[in-house]
Structures are given as structure tokens and as C-alpha cells.
Amino acid sequence: MNLNLKNPIAFFDLETTGINVSKDRIVEIAIVKISPNGKEETKTYRVNPTIPIPPETTAIHGISDEDVKDEPTFKEIGKTIAKYIEGCDLAGYNSNRFDIPLLAEEFLRADIDVDMRKRKFVDVQTIFHKMEQRTLTAAYKFYCGKDLEGAHGAEADTLATYEVLKSQLDKYENLENDIDYLSKFSTQNKNADFAGMIVFDKKGVETFNFGKNKGKAVEDVLKEQPGYYGWIMNNDFPLYTKKVLTEIKLRNFNM
After folding, report:
1. Which residues share a beta bridge with 83?
2. Does 48 lie in the same domain as 106?
3. Which residues face 16 on adjacent strands?
4. Residue finishing a domain among 80, 112, 128
5. What CA–CA distance (Å, rounded) separates 107 from 55?
6. Residues with Cβ < 8 Å from 1, sequence gap 6 or more?
7. How confident is the model at residue 115 (pLDDT cuts 50, 70, 90)?
8. In terms of DSSP bridges, do strands 121-123 and 89-92 run parallel, antiparallel, or are they unpaired?
9. Do the domain assignments include residue 192?
10. Three-class SS state of 45
11. Quick one: CA dihedral 53, 55, 59, 62, positive or negative?
């Protein structure tokens, strides 16, 4: 089944120096862009992360410091990537929890203004877990009947994710071939930030989703614990989380 698209959609996958959204960096990004007319384009970029790639990480994706030492940094190619995905909804495998938050961080670090909130996000892993509870390699085998060669390579994983979503639409009659629907279906929490540190409650109020203030309204915490804002801003939290927190603080300051 081909995707029913109103906007182009960019499937993407990141290979990184690690799994810490705040600290780690992209070493490879692959993007498969599908247009509403069915046209498919693939671009893959190697990136110099400007920090060492740990050996245990290289053992997973096979990319070493030597492989990327002469590649451009994200700051150098970020605008090219932003332009390529301009106007696109985004899709990936575990992308809502990892790839999208990390990509947003890289754009912020590079001072590239990309409004990610205007896009729909489809997380194929969430659809898979709601339906079958498996990994990407197993998903590819289960839905597409093929072994995933080159797993943990960004391009192989991205193309496999795209194929899996199309096969999911073929397999499950209750899945609608509509990006708005798939975005809502594959979203587990309604996040105010990408890392899920601040989420909307049932009433649409931003609440903290971690630590001693979990479940409490952000506005209330900022009023009752003035030092909490400074503590977050001065510690190892994602830049995008800090940006959202600052927007909430300024919104109330200007009321």
C-alpha cells in the first residue's frame, strides 16, 4: 500500500555518538523523502560530531572517528538538511523518543531556526509495539518477510522503516492511510518538548514529567519554586526542553 499523503514525508534515521539527547551528536543521517505523487528521494550524510565516538558505539553502527574526521560538521550542513525537509512531516523508528529530540537539539546548537512543532510525526516503532511488540529487525522480518541486511546503518534502517510502515498499512485494516491519523496513533504522550520532560495533561496544561515535580503544572512550580527554573537551565537538560520552559516562564511574565 502506498502512503496517502497531503504533505511530503521524510523518513529518517540517525547514527550517533550515544543515546544522551543533551550531550551526544549525529555521525550519520539518512533521509528518504516521499512526495504526495509517490516520488522517492534518498540522501545520506556523514557528519563530524566534533566529539569522540566511543568504541562501544562504533561496535554497533561501525562508524569510527577516522571515518568522519574529514566530514562536515552539523553546523556546516544543517541548513542543507533543514531545506531538504522543509514542509515535510517526519517519520522514523523510535523517532519520537530519540531521533526527533536529538535532531532538534542539533538544529538549536547550530543556530538554525526550524519550527518542528508544525509537523506531524509518525513513529513506526510505536505502531509496531502497539500491534506486535518487536524490534526493527524482527519487524522487517515479520511485515516484509525479509532479513534486514546492514542493520544499524542509517540508510538500511531508514529504508526498512519506510517499507515496514507500508506493510503495516497493508496488514491492519484498522490503520488509516492518513498521516494525521498515524501521527496521533503513534504518539504515546502529548509532549510539550521533544524529550518528554514536559507534557500536556488531559486539560492541555503543561506539566513536568520527571523528578520531584512530576505531574505538577509547570506554571505552578515556577511560581512556588522560583529556583527550579534556574536549576534546570544550569544543568544537563536538552536545549529544546529549556527553550519550552523559558517560553512558559516568559508567557506568564508578560501576562
Report:
1. none
2. yes
3. 26
4. 128
5. 26
6. 166, 169, 170, 177
7. confident
8. parallel
9. no
10. strand
11. positive
* CATH code for the domain in which residue 72 is found: 3.30.420.10
Print the domain residue range for 177: 136-186
Give ∠ CA 240-243-245 in degrees, rounded to 5: 110
Does 140 lie in the same domain as 124? no
Tell me how far apart the alpha carbons of residues 85 and 163 are, in angstroms, rounded to a whole number.
19
What tens digit of pLDDT does each residue of 53-107 get? 999 999 999 999 999 999 999 999 999 999 999 999 999 999 998 999 999 999 9
Neighbouring residues of 255: CB distance < 8 A, sequence distance ≥ 6? none
Q: Provide the grid cell at 97.
A: 523518543
Whether residue 173 lies inside any domain: the answer is: yes
Distance CA 226, CA 93 (A): 38
E-strand ranges in 130-236 read 198-200, 206-208
Cell representation of residue 108:
538549536
Q: pTM of this prediction?
A: 0.69
Question: How many domains in the chain?
Answer: 3
Residues 15 and 89 in one domain: yes
Whether the Cβ atoms of residue 162 and residue 34 lie closer than 8 Å to each other = yes
Residue 198 confidence (pLDDT) above 90 = yes
141 plus 232 within the same structural domain: no
